[in-house]
């Protein structure tokens, strides 16, 4: 599915505390402060409102100078590309960095809004990103590569609260979880289980780090590689100390074939 003109909207967030988000933004509880020097491939996405203001929506990851990767559900509602802005090279939301417009976006043809399978999208930028030490493409996991269980992975994003104007990039280390066990727990709680093209990461039975919906579209890294994209999270952020991610290795070839 292709839409012409500018970006798509997405929220990505991680929180070092259990600060509540009144507007329902996404954050990770239990993280620590980071920077784009540490994660130069992460970017922020904004939606241009009718009054001219920008609303921080999702996270995304740089694939090339002209393409960023995010979650397909961030474009639910037929968001017009012309209303999207991407900020690269900044550790703070709404401040600094390099802002670009989006020419179009492409949602994976197998995307299922109900079970969130193939929850991945490519956004083509109107102008090239100026690569630097804080703006760099991610190293993409090879096609078909599986992830070992109980392996440390890193998720990064921004914490956002109504009282916090310039939220600083956060990071958290979580662990890959057995696919079947994670799926069973989601189903038992009344949620869709995991498809084969999803990753489960977090902690089992031990709290401390949680994902919320504003983390959507953000990266999951393993040993420096982009292995996952944060998928849509639950309304109750602390219901599960683990979350679903789109498995990037299932879509590596699609990304490379369709990216600019």
TrEMBL record:
GO BP term, pick one: proteolysis
PANTHER family cross-referenced by the UniProt entry: FI18310P1-RELATED, POLYSERASE-RELATED
UniProt keywords, alphabetically: Disulfide bond, Fibrinolytic toxin, Hemostasis impairing toxin, Hydrolase, Protease, Serine protease, Signal, Toxin
Location of the Peptidase S1 domain: 28-260
Protein name, entry field: (diamondback moth) hypothetical protein
Superkingdom of the source species: Eukaryota
One Pfam family of this chain: Trypsin
Family: Belongs to the peptidase S1 family.
InterPro entries linked: Peptidase_S1, Peptidase_S1_PA, Peptidase_S1_PA_chymotrypsin, Peptidase_S1A, Trypsin_dom, TRYPSIN_HIS
Recorded GO MF terms: serine-type endopeptidase activity; toxin activity
GO cellular component, one term: extracellular region
Described function: Fibrinolytic activity; shows preferential cleavage of Arg-Gly bonds in all three fibrinogen chains. Contact with the caterpillars causes severe bleeding, due the anticoagulant effect of the protein.
Annotated signal peptide: 1-20
Primary location class: secreted
Subcellular location: Secreted, Extracellular space
């Amino acid at each position: 599915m292709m839409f012409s003109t500018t970006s798509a909207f997405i929220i990505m967030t991680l929180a070092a505390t259990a600060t509540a988000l009144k507007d329902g933004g996404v954050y990770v509880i239990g993280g620590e402060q980071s920077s784009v020097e540490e994660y130069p491939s992460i970017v922020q996405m904004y939606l241009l409102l009718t009054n001219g203001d920008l609303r921080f929506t999702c996270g995304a990851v740089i694939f090339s100078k002209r393409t960023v990767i995010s979650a397909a559900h961030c474009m639910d509602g037929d968001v017009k590309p012309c209303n999207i802005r991407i900020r690269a090279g900044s550790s703070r939301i709404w401040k600094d960095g390099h802002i670009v417009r989006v020419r179009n976006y492409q949602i994976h043809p197998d995307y299922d809004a109900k079970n969130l399978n193939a929850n991945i999208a490519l956004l083509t930028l109107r102008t090239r990103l100026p690569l630097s030490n804080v703006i760099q493409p991610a190293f993409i996991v090879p096609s078909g590569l599986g992830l070992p269980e109980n392996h440390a992975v890193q998720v990064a994003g921004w914490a956002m609260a109504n009282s916090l104007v310039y939220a600083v990039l956060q990071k958290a280390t979580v662990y890959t979880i057995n696919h079947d066990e994670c799926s069973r727990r989601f189903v038992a709680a009344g949620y869709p289980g995991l498809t084969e093209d999803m990753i489960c990461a977090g902690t089992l039975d031990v709290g401390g780090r949680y994902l919320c919906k504003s983390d959507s579209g953000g990266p999951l890294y393993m040993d420096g590689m982009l292995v996952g994209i944060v998928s849509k999270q639950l309304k109750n952020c602390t219901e599960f100390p683990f979350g679903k991610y789109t498995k990037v290795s299932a879509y590596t070839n699609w990304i490379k074939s369709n990216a600019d």
